[in-house]
Structures are given as structure tokens and as C-alpha cells.
Design a protein that fits this description.
alpha+beta, 3-stranded mixed sheet, about 45% helix, elongated
């Protein structure tokens, strides 16, 4: 009997004997009316969605609320600079489209003959193909003449457009469906569209790609985030992309784990219910180091006659420290690759530094010395005889060993891992803090919700303890506050992120001195009435 997994949207997929979904994608067969997918786009959950993952894409997705490929194609077209910058009756074409779509403004047509062509874009000429259709209907252009018009629009060449204009008005007069004055006015629209109209065939293709990526995210978020993290490594803004994706994954209850010497995956991959970072994602751990790690572990597993997940820290320390590049060993410990051993990372690093000061002869003796820790074994050595061929070959060696024992017994600093230190190390070596946030070391007792809680509807007013990931100052161009400044923030905590935090002029002027990247603060604010995921901040203090 065939068994299936069924989603709330009605989409079904076969499952294997372990209830794991079997998904062999046939893109051409994906349903284009999946409510789960359209809901994801409409609520602006567009991180990683083709064409829509920018702040603008997220914002306009929530304003346009597309529910079909046609509407998504319109969204892709009106979010381009042309429509965003072209103003008609005091409002951009982008906002005319949105207001007409949601019936806040009436949809009007200059002439009834244009209605059938411009109906789907609410009377606004958005696409080059619409200009071609107008030319065919109003002036009787054949396909070649219409394509000449398209080329003139696309190339934005005034001389070519002037020739087409003469032909358009002449043929419109001959056809007689509009007056000469109307033909001139209609063509003026087409001329203006040079600045903003987009090729619909491209826009629809982009919309389909965007829908497919949204479909994958809505149904298979672990696979989606893993694939996106893998490909983000090639991007110049890798750290920013990874940070945003990891934070967004938390909103899906998907945790991205630090790398592990046990799994030794080179790159991001699915690991149970989570995603695990790869060793190659650690700064300084390249292909040659990975080969050395594999070779060393293979040899040590043979020597110890047990798999790596059964090794103790002392075995890692004595058998691997001298065979793996020092910087790589330090980086792996610092990013949590050996955290399965249950010791603090700072303790392991401290002991590693002491072992690195020993000679290979010393390490050979220590391998065969009883003791659960490096301190235990050094004490055994220190109690032995001094003499040639002995671990303590001289009084100088004995003094060095005794000094190491003292430093291991009484470290000059605390060896516990603080959240701030862990966060700093992972940020430096992985480009993203995975284990915790700097906020975890702060007094967050005044907070009433986390970033994730806020996105789920809690907290109004909201008090959120967070780290500032990005600050963008914006000069106000219109209205009473023209010339003033406001700011947009991206913030995060251990539970997720908010990429839509807004401070208007008064709040920004008052609190901008503490609103700097990487700072930890308490944000106090209210939920925006229109964009429910936007926090409008009215008070800030450092924590």
C-alpha cells in the first residue's frame, strides 16, 4: 500500500518505510495554486526567495499580496527602479498598482481600447509587451513593426523612438479607432515607458523561479536552508547571507549546529532535525587541512583500535595535536568541533597550548603514562626519576614539567566559556555565531519577548533584548520631516532575528549613539499597524 504525507495546503508526497518523504521534483508538475506557498510570499517570509529576498522584496510582497504567477510577475516588474521612480499624479507607478489592486484607488483607462491590454495591471503600462499590443491594436502594427517598437523601448534610443512614433501616429489615423490627439497621447505613454517598462517574458520566468524557491521553503525548509547555505559560500557577502539564513531558519525551529570532528562533513548538510556546519566553513580549514585531518584520524583510530566518537580529550590532545596544523586545531576547538567531549573550549585551548610546548619525545612518554587528564599524566612524570633516557632527562626538564603542572592547576584566567567569548570566536571563524548570542551574557530580565516571539504575534508593546546586526540611516525626502534622518535596523538574539526595525527621526536622534553594529541593547517599541513584522522603536538602552 502506497503511503503519503499530506500538507495543510493539500500537497502530497510519497513516504518510505521510515516515513521520510520521497521527493523527486518535477518542476513542470508543481501546483501553481499552493496556498502554503502563496501565504509564505504574502507574509513577506522571502529570505532566500529568488528576486524577493531584499528588504524591498519583502516589503512589497506584503503590500501586493500576490496569489498567482501573473501577480507575482507584476510584483517583480514594479519593484524595479523604473516603476519605483516614475511618478504619476504625485505617486509612483508601483504604489498606483498596489492601491488600484486593493481598490483603494479606482482603475481607470485613458481610452476604452486600452482596457483589455492593461486590465491585469490595473490600467498601468508595466511591460514592453503591453506597448507592443497597444501598437498592434491602436495603430495596426504588424509583428515586425511591434518588435521594432520593443527594441526602441529596450535600447532607449530617442532617434529610433522618433521614427516609430511617426509610423504609429500615421497608421493610427489610417485605422481610425482613435483620434490623432488620442494617438499622440497614447504614444507619449509608450515613450515614457522607456524609463520603466520591463520585459514580461523575463518577469514571468523570474516569477516562476521565485515561486519554485518559495514552494521548496514552504514544504521542505531543512533542505531549502541547507541548499541555500551551501551556495551562499560562493557569494561575496557570505557572512551576511549566512547570518540572515541561520536566523530565518530558527523561525522554522531549525537549528544550525557548529561543525563537528565526529561527522567531519566538509560543508553544510542535514543532520537529524538540524543542519550542521561543515569543517571547511571554518576560517583557515581548507582542502589540504581536511586531507590531513582525515589521514590523522584514520591512523589514530587504527592505533587506538576504537572509533573517533569513543576517544577522550587526552587522546585527541596527544595523538592529534602534532599531526594537524596548529591554527586549524585551534580554530576547530574554538568553533565547537570537539564540544562533544564535554569540556569548555577555553580549557581545551589552554591545555593544547601547554602540550604544544612539549617535545615529540615528551608526548611519546605521555601517551604511555596512566592518567585521565594531561595534568594527571604530567604529575606521574614529575614523580619519576631524573636521568638519561627517562621522561625527566634533566633537572631543567623536571622544572619545566613542574611549572606546567602549576599553570594547569592554577590557570591565570577563568577557563569557562562565556556567551560573549563563544559568540566572538564563532563570528570571527565561521562568520556567524551559532552556539549562542552575546545577548545571553546580558541582563535581559526586562524583556517580555524574543525576536521569534515578536514575529509570532507576542509583545505589543515589545521589550526585546538583542544584538544589532545592521544599521542603515536614511534621509527623509518628503513630508514635514524632509531632510531629517531615520534608521532601519536588523537585530537578532538566540531565537531568531528581526530584519524590519524602524526608528523615526526623534528616536533615532535620541538613541543613535548606542545603536551601533554588534552592540547589545534593549529595544522598546510597538508593532506597525500595516506591517505586522515591523517594530517601531521609541526607547533604547544598552544592556
Amino acid at each position: 500500500m502506497n503511503r503519503e504525507a499530506k500538507f495543510a495546503c493539500g500537497c502530497t508526497f510519497p513516504v518510505d518505510e521510515n516515513d521520510k518523504i520521497i521527493f523527486t521534483p518535477e518542476i513542470e508538475k508543481l501546483p501553481l495554486d499552493c496556498s502554503l506557498t502563496w501565504d509564505l510570499i504574502c507574509k513577506g517570509d522571502t529570505k532566500g526567495i529568488f528576486q524577493l529576498e531584499s528588504h524591498l522584496g519583502k516589503s512589497l510582497s506584503k503590500q501586493v499580496l500576490p496569489r498567482s504567477i501573473e501577480e507575482l510577475s507584476d510584483l517583480v516588474a514594479i519593484m524595479r527602479p523604473g516603476c519605483l521612480e516614475s511618478v504619476m499624479d504625485g505617486k509612483t507607478l508601483t504604489h498606483h498598482y498596489i492601491d488600484r489592486k486593493h481598490k483603494r484607488d479606482a482603475t481607470t483607462y485613458y481610452h476604452p481600447i486600452l482596457e483589455s491590454i492593461l486590465r491585469t495591471t490595473y490600467g498601468i503600462l508595466v511591460y514592453q509587451e503591453q506597448a507592443m499590443q497597444i501598437a498592434q491594436k491602436v495603430a495596426g502594427f504588424n509583428l515586425q513593426e511591434a518588435d521594432t517598437l520593443r527594441k526602441a523601448i529596450g535600447k532607449k534610443k530617442a532617434d529610433e523612438m522618433a521614427k516609430v512614433k511617426t509610423l504609429f501616429i500615421t497608421k493610427a489615423k489610417e485605422l481610425g479607432l482613435v483620434t490623432e490627439e488620442e494617438a499622440i497621447e497614447i504614444f507619449s505613454w509608450i515613450e515614457k515607458s522607456q524609463r520603466y517598462s520591463f520585459n514580461k517574458s523575463h518577469s514571468v520566468a523570474y516569477a516562476v523561479d521565485g515561486y519554485i524557491s518559495a514552494y521548496a521553503k514552504a514544504h521542505f525548509p531543512k533542505e531549502f536552508f541547507t541548499a541555500y547555505l551551501l551556495h551562499s559560500k560562493e557569494e561575496s557577502d557570505f557572512s551576511d547571507r549566512v547570518r540572515d539564513l541561520v536566523s530565518n531558519a530558527k523561525n522554522y525551529d531549525i537549528e544550525v549546529l557548529p561543525p563537528s570532528i565526529i561527522t567531519r562533513n566538509h560543508n553544510f548538510r542535514i543532520y537529524g532535525d538540524h543542519i550542521i556546519c561543515g569543517l571547511s566553513n571554518i576560517k583557515g580549514v581548507g582542502d589540504s587541512v581536511l586531507r590531513d585531518i582525515e589521514s590523522t584520524i584514520s591512523e589514530v583510530q587504527t592505533a587506538l583500535a576504537k572509533p573517533i566518537d569513543k576517544w577522550s580529550w587526552i587522546e585527541f590532545l596527544l595523538y592529534c595535536a602534532f599531526n594537524i596544523k596548529s591554527d586549524a586545531m585551534t580554530a576547530m576547538i574554538s568553533t565547537g568541533a570537539l564540544s562533544h567531549l564535554g569540556l569548555s573550549r577555553r580549557k581545551m585551548l589552554y591545555e593544547l597550548e601547554h602540550v604544544k610546548e612539549l617535545t615529540t619525545r615528551d608526548v611519546a612518554f605521555l601517551k604511555n603514562t596512566p592518567g585521565a587528564t594531561i595534568l594527571d599524566r604530567l604529575k606521574v612524570v614529575a614523580e619519576g626519576e631524573v636521568g638519561k633516557g627517562k621522561p625527566l632527562c634533566s633537572k631543567v626538564k623536571k622544572a619545566k614539567i613542574e611549572e606546567s603542572i602549576k599553570l594547569l592547576e592554577e590557570p591565570p584566567y577563568k577557563l569557562e566559556d562565556s556567551a560573549a567569548w563563544l559568540s566572538e570566536m564563532e563570528q570571527s571563524l565561521l562568520g556567524i555565531a551559532l552556539t549562542c548570542s552575546k545577548v545571553d551574557d546580558c541582563d535581559a530580565s526586562s524583556a517580555n519577548c524574543t525576536c521569534k516571539d515578536f514575529l509570532n504575534g507576542c509583545g505589543n508593546p515589545a521589550l526585546i533584548a538583542c544584538q544589532i546586526d545592521e544599521v542603515k540611516e536614511h534621509i527623509i525626502k518628503n513630508g514635514q520631516k524632509k531632510g531629517g534622518k531615520m534608521a532601519f535596523l536588523k537585530v537578532s538574539d538566540s531565537y531568531g532575528n528581526l530584519d524590519s526595525v524602524l526608528l523615526f527621526t526623534e528616536a533615532w536622534d535620541k538613541f543613535k549613539d548606542v545603536l551601533i553594529q554588534d552592540n547589545t541593547v534593549m529595544l522598546v517599541g510597538t508593532r506597525d499597524k500595516k506591517n505586522k513584522d515591523t517594530l517601531i522603536v521609541n526607547k533604547v538602552w544598552q544592556i
